[in-house]
Specification:
Elements lengths: L13 E8 L2 E7 L6 E8 L5 E7 L3 E3 L11 E8 L12 E4 L5 H4 L6 E8 L2 E7 L2 E6 L2 E4 H5 L4 E8 L6 E5 L3 E5 L6 E8 L15 E2 L2 H45 L7
Antiparallel strand pairs: 1-2, 2-5, 3-4, 3-6, 6-7, 8-9, 9-14, 10-11, 12-13, 12-15, 15-16
Length: 264
């Protein structure tokens, strides 16, 4: 019995997927090469093929820098070939095509971060940190807000720390200002959202952060106690000076009264 086994050098790439977060874009595939190497080619719909990751034994290729027009649709393919060709090898390498990819529509939104927050009385202010992308204009890295502009929306989920009932509010800026109950502790997190997309609309939710009104009350109490102590210290000083002056005046008066009279 004979079993025909296909040489690994003849295997085209498969399971080709794009991994892209905030415009950092990597093409991945299988299998791990044994007797072959890979070369990636990329092109927009109107241009020539450009080679990247030439003769690599890796199963991934960073194509971020080749996608400078974020609204363009790109085509990529992976060539499978022997490191050194011998007589009888086909002129053309086997290749496998990747799915079409449009960065503006297809990159996943990364997990957003809360830059800072403050609860002051009945107002809770939350500021979202603007994520930096690898996309550059005139040498300057662009933020998600600069790229998506008003297409980028943030959702704030917030709730009382003693409750599970969530409320939500949206903004097309990077700041939230919501009404809350004074003296209550609140927990919250945020999520990026692009309503204009048909898919990949939402990012993962950020880490949960919580306010602590106990600390605020303690801080206010600390200042009140400090102010009271300051007033008491001032009063003690004034009283001490007054008593000292009175005592000194009394001693002077007693000295004069007890002094012997001089007769001419």
């Amino acid at each position: 019995m004979f079993i025909l086994v296909q040489s690994t050098s003849d295997i085209s790439a498969y399971n080709i997927t794009w991994k892209s977060i905030d415009f950092k874009t990597i093409l991945e595939w299988e299998p791990i090469p044994v007797n072959q190497v890979y070369t990636v080619e990329i092109s927009d719909r109107w241009g020539d093929w450009k080679k990247k990751c030439f003769h690599t034994k890796k199963t991934e290729c960073d194509l971020t820098d080749e996608m400078r027009n974020l609204r363009e649709t790109y085509i990529a393919r992976i060539l499978s070939e022997k490191p050194i060709k011998s007589d009888g090898d086909p002129e053309e390498s086997q290749h496998a095509n990747a799915p079409y990819f449009t960065p503006y529509l297809d990159t996943n939104l990364g997990q957003p971060r809360i830059q800072n927050f403050e609860q002051n009385g009945t107002k809770l202010k939350v500021t979202v940190q603007d994520s930096i992308t690898p996309f550059r204009i005139n040498g300057n890295f662009q933020t998600l807000r600069q790229i998506f502009q008003q297409d980028l929306t943030y959702i704030l989920y917030y709730w009382k720390a003693s409750s599970t009932g969530k409320k939500s509010v949206r903004t097309d800026t990077n700041e939230f200002l919501v009404d809350v109950d004074k003296g209550e502790n609140y927990c919250f997190n945020i999520q990026a959202f692009i309503p204009s997309r048909r898919a990949k609309q939402k990012s993962p939710e950020s880490e949960i952060r919580c306010t602590s009104q106990d600390k605020v009350v303690f801080k206010e109490l600390f200042f009140i106690i400090g102010a009271v102590l300051f007033v008491i210290i001032i009063l003690v000083i004034i009283l001490s000076v007054t008593l000292h002056k009175c005592s000194k005046a009394r001693a002077e008066r007693d000295r004069k009264e007890n002094a012997p009279l001089n007769f001419a």
